[in-house]
Write a structure and sequence with these properties.
alpha/beta, Rossmann fold, two-stranded antiparallel ribbon, eight-stranded mixed β-sheet
Length: about 270
């Protein structure tokens, strides 16, 4: 992983070269709409309040959980037992991004969502709350963390989340082999687990056949390490990706065939 100094330098480079976050000068109608109606949407609601209240409760919870980390681990805390409060502070996606996912799901009316990396279920709760009629399939490697997430889903009365425990290298192929027998495609996928180059590419390749013209696949921490940057650039260079958006901490890829010319955007957020 990059050091804090290296990451700060990369963020400065990103902020300097990125397009402004208000859509001025953006010629892509899709991206202009995305900026104006999703990125710039600052509204809040009762779902946000409930989930953030839960996050604050977890920040004070010193219950120790046994961590089984199959990926690149945590930048902050690498112990095998970690307090819930420590996980909240170091591993959970900030509200800004989880709420962005919520707005993406609502704006594009995404029904079927998949997440690799449940953690304590805060981001999963945003994905599920955005449309309670649709399903969220989420995957977590550590059983104790998965159990904590289930309790959190229960406290928010979310019954549209299906959580699978175990190593993604085993659980994801098993899930997809059964899922292919359904008529559904995956609308929204969030890859937030492992944080290594080849596994990230592998997960993308496994999910790709289940995507459709309007799907989005979002990768977390695309500038977290050289390996993650390599994975990001590998994926956005592929012919099926017609549009990609770099928001520094996350990257989005779209497959819209109406985009006749491949486009990449780096946008301040």
């Amino acid at each position: 992983m990059f050091s804090k100094i290296e990451l700060a330098k990369k963020y400065l480079q990103y902020w300097t070269k990125a397009s402004n976050g208000k859509g001025h000068g953006t010629h892509s109608p899709f991206v202009y709409d995305f900026i104006r109606k999703v990125l710039m949407d600052k509204t809040s609601n009762a779902d946000f309040t409930q989930i953030e209240n839960l996050r604050q409760q977890l920040r004070k919870d010193d219950t120790l959980l046994e961590i089984r980390d199959f990926g690149a681990g945590s930048r902050v805390d690498g112990h095998k037992k970690r307090a819930i409060s420590s996980i909240v502070k170091s591993a959970l996606k900030p509200a800004k991004y989880s709420q962005l996912f919520y707005k993406i799901i609502q704006h594009y009316q995404y029904k079927t969502r998949l997440e690799l990396g449940t953690s304590l279920g805060i981001t999963s709760s945003y994905l599920a709350s955005a449309d309670r009629a649709g399903k969220v399939y989420t995957f977590e490697g550590a059983p104790s963390v998965a159990e904590a997430a289930r309790k959190n889903f229960g406290s928010l009365h979310l019954d549209n989340v299906v959580l699978t425990e175990g190593n993604f290298d085993e659980t994801l192929p098993s899930f997809l082999s059964q899922y292919k027998n359904t008529a559904e495609k995956l609308d929204f996928c969030f890859i937030d687990g492992n944080h290594r180059e080849q596994p990230t590419i592998d997960y993308y390749e496994q999910l790709l056949p289940f995507s459709h013209n309007n799907s989005v696949i979002i990768l977390d921490d695309i500038h977290w390490s050289q390996g993650m940057e390599n994975a990001w650039y590998n994926i956005i260079d592929r012919p099926e990706v017609t549009l990609s958006i770099d928001l520094f901490f996350i990257g989005l890829v779209f497959f819209r065939k109406e985009n006749k010319q491949k486009e990449h955007f780096t946008i301040r957020y």
